[in-house]
Every structure is written in structure tokens, then in C-alpha cells.
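Practice problem. Given the sequence and the SMILES for adenosine-5'-triphosphate, write out the predicted structure.
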Amino acid sequence: MKNSAKIFQREGIVVQGEQAMRALGKELAGNLEAGDVLGLVGELGAGKTRLVQGILEGLGCQQVGTSPTFSIVHEHTDGSLPVAHFDLYRLKQPDEALQIGWDEYLTSGMVLLVEWADRFGGELLPEETVWVHIERVGETTRRVWIKATALR
Ligand SMILES: Nc1ncnc2c1ncn2[C@@H]1O[C@H](COP(=O)(O)OP(=O)(O)OP(=O)(O)O)[C@@H](O)[C@H]1O
Ligand SMILES: [Mg+2]
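Answer key:
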């Protein structure tokens, strides 16, 4: 991840409206590199998918869909970096992630964007995950914290 110290250590950015959330996603997209893992955390409707849509747009992907709620993972390979977008919400146990090829994704070099990454205490996510916490503070106001545990 480029400029990780600058871009990926952010405390309580106020994001007003969903367009601003998409714009933040686009900004993050410009700093992603192959193999980066973003763990997205926040309650239902926090804006995790909006942020992902911004990232996908920023990477030039054409299909910027919704949460991959029914399929757990959606791949986007038409942008400047290949992306796998996960939603772990419906997993009942960590084994189910293994069944969809989680381990292979981790070493695939794809950018992994993972909604509900804190499922199972975050145990599925690698140490170098960049954690993105989104807090809903009002109808259209969100606060976002970005923390990279292991900076390159
Ligand atoms: N500042 C904001 N940022 C993001 N979304 C916002 C904002 N203000 C309002 N919204 C609305 O909040 C909702 C966020 O939905 P979104 O699907 O992105 O949430 P999510 O965190 O992915 O939820 P889920 O856990 O169900 O997947 C949308 O309806 C969006 O229009
Ligand atoms: Mg979602």
C-alpha cells in the first residue's frame, strides 16, 4: 500500500453523505496495491458497501454491484487491480470461508475487500489487514477510522 502512513492512519474522518463515502473509496483505491486486504467493520447500513463501490469505481471496474450477500464473494477483474469483495455476515462458522476458497484468495494477489471482517473476532483476516471502521453517527453522517496494523 502506497503512502500507508499518510492515507491509512486516519482517525475519525467525518463523511457527510453517501457520495462522500464513495469519494473516500476512490481516494483509497488510488493507494491500493496487489494483495492488499481491507477489513470493513460497521453495523448494518453503516456504509461498507458504499465504500467498496467507491473503491471499485476508483479502480475502473464496470460492475460496481451490491453486497455479495448471497454469494459471499464477488470477483471484479475488469479494473486496474483484481478485486475479491466478500461479505462474511452470513457465515456461521469460519470453516465456511475455507469452503469458498478463502486461503487461496489470501495468496492470490487480489485486493480483498471484506465486509463484516470482524466476524469470528477477525481471526480470518491476516495480520497486515488495513482495518476500516465505519460508525453511523446520524442519518447521513458517518465517522471512519482507518488503521493499518503492519505498515509496509
Ligand atoms: N455518509 C454516508 N456514507 C455511506 N452511506 C450513507 C451515508 N449517508 C447515508 N448513507 C446510506 O446508508 C446506507 C449504507 O448502506 P450500505 O449497503 O453501504 O451499508 P453496509 O455497511 O454495507 O450494510 P450491510 O452490513 O447490510 O452490508 C445506504 O442506504 C446509503 O445511502
Ligand atoms: Mg454491505
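Check your answer against the key. The CA atoms of residues 27 and 143 lie 16 Å apart.
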